Amino acid sequence: MMSENEVPEAEKQEFGQRALEAEIHTRWAGKHICYFKELDSTNIRAKQEADSGAVEGTLIVTDKQTAGRGRRGRSWNSPAGVNVYFTLILKPVYEPDKAAMVTLVMALAVAEGITLTCGLDAEIKWPNDVVVNGKKVCGILTEMSMEHDRIRHVVVGVGVNAGLQEFPLEIAATAASLEAECKRPVSRTALVANILEAFEKYYEGFRRELSLSGIRGKYNGRLVNRDREVRVLDPKGEFQGVARGINEAGELLVEHDDGSVTAVFAGEVSVRGIYGYTV
Ligand code: BTN
Question: Which atom of ligand 1 is nearest the CA belonging to 70?
């Protein structure tokens, strides 16, 4: 008999280099795949590969991370056999100040990939958490490397809780997994493929326009806090207002009681619901 945390043999065989190559139908995003059974962190490896000449669209994927990294210096829980951990290498020619928007493009791609793969209504908690039923199922860590004021490379790391059933105590109240929410097995291979196909499409639009104008409507349509009261935790001063969606630069528009609007830039700021993580 299999224990609850064991992975069915079929799924173990399914997730790997060959299955990913067979299922990802993109022109460049994930066209070259480096799959590892175990890594410290796909972001760390992606930066090394990018420095050694990996081409744009190279995908670093692993089944387990021993030093998975989250935003703001946190760690990312990364056990084997259940979740998705990958990093996409980009070699942009645009100005460094545009790179922050890539994270929002990926958030939309992940949300759409989740809906397509398992039918769940995936929402976005600005700027880049993906949530299902108000709980976080995905985190994105984008890192940029510079050389003489120009971008050398950008790596976009994505962690999706696909099949995890038990969460560390400190995130148990705010985190969920796709399988726990949709109550059936989720193919990690199909999920990665669907995310990359969406990302390629949306990133090409972003690269052309150098703005989020092309995806703004879709992004705002999935925004979990849209038209709801939010608390903006800005190191320069906390305030409350109603979230009205993002602008073309990816800033969150927050409306004050007097009708004036502040455009909030992600950076050091985080946004919460009035009562908790999302609401
Ligand atoms: C967050 O804190 O919300 C961001 C988490 C990002 C985790 C992913 S897992 C794949 C990639 N490699 C890492 O070390 N981190 C990112």
Answer: 2
Name residues of the chain where pLDDT drops below 50. Answer: 1-8, 10, 12
Distance in angstroms (rounded) separating the CA atoms of residues 179 and 147 = 42
75 CB-near residues (< 8 Å, 6+ apart): 67, 68, 69
Q: Which atom of ligand 1 is nearest to the CA of 43?
A: 12
* Ligand 1, residues at Cβ distance < 6 Å: 41-43, 65, 68-71, 74, 76, 85, 87, 129, 139-141, 157-159
Q: Give the pair of three-digit tokens for residue 137.
A: 């199922």
Q: CA angle, corner 78, sides to 223 and 73, nearest 5?
A: 70
Tell me the whole-structure pTM to 2 decimals: 0.93
Classify residue 143 as exposed, middle or buried by CB count within 10 Å of its CB (0-12, 13-18, 19+).
Answer: middle
Q: Which atom of ligand 1 is nearest to the CA of 139?
A: 3
Q: Which of 208, 173, 200 is nearest to 28 (CA)?
A: 200
